[in-house]
Every structure is written in C-alpha cells, then in structure tokens.
Design a protein that fits this description.
Helix 4 links the parallel strand 4 and strand 5. 43% of the residues lie in helices and 13% in strands. The radius of gyration is 18 Å and the shape is globular. It is α/β, with parallel strands linked by helices.
Length: 276
C-alpha cells in the first residue's frame, strides 16, 4: 500500500496544476524541450496519456505563437506508437500552425493493429513534411530482448519502414523509454543516429535525447513553467522520473505495470508492461 500511494503521488504530481502565484508569461525564459505525445482524442479520458484535441491545439498556440516562448528555440513535438489519431487529429492541427513533428512508429503494428495507422497514413505524414522514425517492431522493452529479438526490434523494423516509405530511417524512440549500454550499441549498429527516450531532461549521456511525456492533466501554465529554468518545474519532473525508475527496478516491470495501469485508469493488457 505504501508503494502504491508513493507511485500515485508521483504520477499525479508530475503534471500538474500550479498555484495562482505562477510566473506570468512575460517573466518566462524559454529553453529547448522535446515533448512526447501518445494519443489525441476529441473528448477527455481518465487515461493519463490521452490529450484532447483542444488541449493539443492550445499547446501549439502557446508554444509556437506566444512571444515569450517563441523568443527561444521552438519545442520539438514528437509522437510515439503510431496511433491513428496522429493522422486524424494531430496532422490537421500541426498543419494549421505550420509545425513539423516527429512520429515514431511501431513497425509491426502498422496496417495490422486496430486503432493504429496504415502505410497510406504514414506516407501522408511524410508528404506533409513530418519526420518518421522507428519505435521498435512490437513495442517490446529493448533491455529484455535477446540478441535475435533485438535485431527484429531494431534492424528489421528500420528496413521495413524504409522499404514501405522509400526513405532513410535514422531515428529511434525507445519503447517505455528503456535502454542500456547494450541497447545503445545495438541501435548504432542497426543504423540509428538519433535516439530518444522519455526521460525529462534536455541533455543525456550517449547522445540520447530526453523528452517530456505530456499528460492530459498538464495545463498550459505548467507547460510554460517547464520552459522557465527558474521555476524548478523540469528539475522536479526529473526527480520524479528517477524515483519512477527506482520503483521499476525494485518492483519489476510486470508488478510496476499493474500499479501504473490502475493509477492511470487503464486496464492491464498485453502491452501494459511496455507502455508503463
């Protein structure tokens, strides 16, 4: 129970709602951040990784049009998994703001899994100027893969994406944000030059790019604070991530995933371990 409460606090506080004493937009000092989205919906959901289309439109307007943020480097918008909402909802909203994003695709799900994009949708994203990267073959946690499985998740996934899309794939997003030295070496051997995780830091060792996992509970005010080095919001998020990683190691992936699923209002399923 103590671990459950600790994880609940950690998950709910990672987003959250700020006091009325927050800094005004004019006081913010912008910095480069990479934002990670999973799925957009028109209506709200209790599942924490769901962001509404209205919220996403607000994020785009805030971070790409607000002068206080525009003064610095624009954030990079990224999407993991290849959900159909990337095409149906994200693409039109990105086009309205003339923003380019990166979409990391679970190759084995493409055109074969309900709720996820097919090859025609991926080509449409590509033709609109967006970047396509890999997110593994089956969304398996890479550190747990055997050498044969790792080859399938990395090299085969890249080759299939390149063959079906007709362009080079050189970026990779780690499923579940999980990686180790062995995985990094395998990624470089498989031909990837840009590697992304879900650790909320701007700089990581080994050339890995960190990202902020955007949740439906994150307000515009909170996102503004993440871009302000003086607010301490990103530092707090980093600490929460370290605690989360510790709990994952302590509890094991399957037990941790079960707790994560309950807290995030998502029923455990075959993919719960790899998405937690």
């Amino acid at each position: 129970m103590a671990l459950y409460l600790l994880l609940t606090v950690m998950e709910r506080e990672s987003g959250i709602r700020m006091r009325s004493s927050d800094l005004s937009a004019s006081e913010l000092q912008p910095r480069r951040l990479h934002l990670l989205y999973h799925e957009l919906r028109e209506s709200e959901s209790e599942y924490s990784y769901i962001v509404t289309t209205q919220q996403f439109a607000g994020h785009l307007a805030l971070l790409c049009a607000d002068e206080s943020v525009q003064a610095g480097p624009r954030p990079e918008f990224t999407f993991d998994d290849g959900h159909i909402s990337d095409f149906e909802h994200a693409l039109p909203l990105l086009s309205e703001q003339r923003v380019k994003a990166s979409f990391f695709i679970t190759a084995g799900w493409t055109g074969s899994r309900t709720g996820y994009m097919g090859w025609s949708e991926l080509r449409a994203l590509q033709e609109a100027g967006h970047s396509i990267g890999a997110h593994g073959w089956s969304h398996a946690l890479l550190p747990h893969c055997s050498d044969v499985e790792l080859d399938q998740e990395l090299r085969v996934a890249r080759l299939v994406l390149e063959d079906r899309l007709g362009s080079a794939i050189d970026s990779m997003s780690f499923p579940g944000g999980r990686y180790d030295k062995r995985v990094l070496k395998a990624c470089h051997q498989a031909g990837y030059t840009r590697l992304y995780t879900s650790e909320p830091r701007t700089h990581l060792s080994g050339g890995v790019i960190g990202r902020v996992n955007v949740r439906g509970s994150m307000t515009n005010t909170y996102l503004q604070k993440l871009f302000d080095e003086r607010s301490g919001a990103l530092t707090s998020l980093e600490r929460q991530y370290v605690l989360k990683a510790f709990l994952q190691k302590l509890l094991g992936d399957r037990f941790y995933a079960s707790l994560w699923s309950m807290i995030n209002r998502k029923q455990p399923d075959a993919d719960a371990v790899s998405k937690a």
